[in-house]
Every structure is written in C-alpha cells, then in structure tokens.
Write a structure and sequence with these properties.
- The chain is of the alpha+beta class.
- Helices cover 28% and strands 28% of the residues.
- It is built from two helices and ten strands; from the N terminus they run αββββββββββα.
- Strands 1, 2, 3, 4, 5, 6, 7 and 8 form an eight-stranded mixed sheet that branches.
- A hairpin with a 4-residue loop joins strand 3 and strand 4.
- The termini are far apart.
Length: 210
C-alpha cells in the first residue's frame, strides 16, 4: 500500500512538471526592450541682426548635421521685436540624435548663418537659443548691360589727364580730281594727234595723185 502511494506521488509530480513545462512553452517570448521614444525639440529666442533686414518676409530655419540631411520648415521672425518661436526640429533619422544644429536667417534672396549652434536631443523639450546674424542681408544682383568700347586718346597736361573720344579711322581715298583731269587731257591730246596724223597722211596721198 505504501509503495502504491509513493508511485502515485511520483506520477503526479512528473505530470505536474510536464504541464508546467508545456505552459511555459505556450507563453509568448519576451523580446528586447523597445528603443527610446524619438520626440521633437522646440526652439525660441531672440534674433539680433547687424544689417538692415526687412520687417516682413524674413524666415528662420535650422539644419541638423547638414542641410542635405535634415532641414526644418520656415519659421516666422519678427525682426522689429527681435524674436522667433515655434521652430520645430523633428528628424526621423535616429542617426541625427545628438548631432549639431545650425540656424539660418532667410529673406527670400539668400540665407545668412548664425555662429550659435545647439544639439538635437529628441527629448520633447523647449530650448531658448538667442541667435546673432552678423552677415549682410542678401540682395538681388542686377547685371548692367555691357557698354560698347570706344577708342580714346589720352592727353596729359598739368591739370590732369583728359580722354578725347576718337572716331574710327576711314579708308584713304585712292587717286583724286587732279589725276582724273590729267588722264582726260592726255587722252584728248592723243586722240587729237591721231586725227592730225590721219589728216596729213590723207593730204599727202592726194597730192601724189596729182
């Protein structure tokens, strides 16, 4: 009787172990700890400019590591009050975490970079960063039409140097009135001599016939 109870206890123990093992196998496997959430950083602060910037139409944007990697949307800047806010930096590339943030002021014609920088933390925080823009405001470049070059003669005198415009030289005239008259006279004289010679020859033959 005692051996039967011992065998029964052993069977129950083995059966319980099998059930526990099957239950543990059916439980979902625990995966690795999920990565940290990646949030945006929000910036605001003062804007100081040293050049004349328009009071309207000026925007601010920021880049993380490089503007080709990430560039924020434009945020309005009140140049008169010297304040900006609502600059949101939210790159999706996690490789940009803890990388340098640079700031640029844009007036529609170009951008000027601020010497101040920050670091992208992705911790859903608000940062106050005051920015200074020492560079001149970009302006539109208007190309002047090219002027025709003119020859000049420089005349030096005691009063200074004066430039006198000179027209382009013309080709020299070949021959002249005297040459034409001379050729006409020679031609007329030659023709007259021919006629006189013919007349003399004709009269000489006539006298011979008589």
């Amino acid at each position: 009787m005692k051996s039967t109870k011992t065998w029964l206890r052993g069977f129950i123990l083995i059966l319980s172990s099998c059930v526990a093992a099957i239950g543990m196998g059916a439980m979902p496997k625990q995966e690795s700890v999920p990565p940290q959430p990646f949030y945006a950083d929000f910036y605001s602060g003062r804007v100081d400019v040293t050049d004349e910037w328009p009071e309207i139409g000026v925007k601010l944007y920021a880049c993380v590591l490089d503007c080709s990697r990430f560039r924020t949307e434009m945020a309005d800047v009140d140049v008169k009050s010297g304040w900006y806010e609502g600059l949101k930096i939210n790159p999706s590339d996690k490789k940009l975490l803890y990388q340098e943030v640079t700031f640029y002021l844009d007036n529609g014609l170009g951008s000027v970079k601020a010497p101040e920088t920050s670091v992208m933390e992705g911790a859903f925080i608000r940062k106050i960063v005051d920015l200074t823009f020492d560079g001149p405001a970009p302006t539109e470049i208007i190309e002047e039409p090219m002027k025709e070059a003119t020859d000049t003669i420089v005349v030096k005198s005691e009063e200074g140097v004066k430039e006198i415009p000179v027209s382009e030289p013309s080709l020299p005239q070949v021959g002249g009135l005297y040459n034409i008259y001379f050729i006409g006279a020679v031609s007329t004289l030659g023709l007259g001599l021919i006629l006189v010679g013919v007349f003399i020859m004709y009269r000489g033959r006539r006298y011979r016939l008589y």
